[in-house]
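Protocol step 4 of 6: structure prediction from sequence.
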Amino acid sequence: MQLFTNHREALFLERPNRFVVLARTTGGAGSGPEVLRAHCPNPGRMLELLVPGRRLILQRRGAATAPGLEYTLAAAYYQGTVVPLQSTRAGAAAERLLLPALFPGLTELEREVRVGSSRLDFRFRLPGRPRRMTLEVKSCTLVEEGTAMFPDAATARGLRHLDELARLAGEGERAGVLFVVQNPNAERFLPDVHTDPAFSRRLLELRERIWIGASSIRTGADGLARLERLRLPIDDEAAARCSEDRGAYLLALRIDEELLCPVGSLGPQRFDPGHYVYVGSAMGGLSARLARHLRKSKSLHWHIDYLLARLPRRSVRALPIRSPHRLECPLAREVAALAAGSVPRFGSSDCRCPSHLYYFPENPLHSEAFLRVLLHFRHDLALRP
């Protein structure tokens, strides 16, 4: 099926807000490059996809489009494949490519079905089944090292949908959720325990009560999509191992002006303007640890507390890696290899690492190399038995 048409390519520049991306065209015969503002139809963070310089596919919108947003972000190139990013098109792909194969003989198909306070994607009847089935479709774009994960950002709406499906199942109805993985390189699917543990735990709780499926599609640069794998394995065991509230984490910090700050036993420390990454761990109560780091009112105990007390909340971003394994020091070594410098002995008084705070002149979250480290630990090391 056709997921997008009437498109052009551009290079990603930035995402000034959740709904807009800026991209630069490469120009053509007789024309120079220009910066385009495009509507972003995907609420996910898409950290690994939206890095500066990433090739994007933009689709021209209709004539009634608001001025300045004549394009929609349709897809991005990633690791040799095209990843569609219009999450609303996942339902159409499911209807055309997946439902007939997953549920042969379905009839009485309804779309956008009102269930409680939500609208779920489909309701249909199956041969020989007295009750209809209600199915919600979710678009998954995050695939790394063969592992697809959803969601890549906390989703209260997705959690509410799971609760509505659970209620239907409790009333004797058939209910399910289908994850449409928009990347053909996926070999298995898991709920993303790192970015939304509440959604992940709820999905694991419901695996015996509702139907849960994952399928992948492959899309070409021409926008034509086809089925890749009808049934991706869902790795419940790996997800369950990592659903406990423990693991390692990164804090990405931004310092706008030179800062002289006392740091406990280290004494006064000078921090140059730029970006810093702190590596920590909490093998019990990871969520509480991160919440404490982000809270302004607290006693100063760890080295990082002294620095965080001097930074505005908007300058700090937490990146958890939930795992039963102790990954803090291996993670610190990988971050150190990419950093331009470090603060000696900061945060490493109880281990042999020279530091756990590293300096980057540019935002590491815009670096493919840094994101590969984060995703490797999340998608591979954290999930190992």
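Step 5 (inspection) to follow. The chain has a mean pLDDT of 95.
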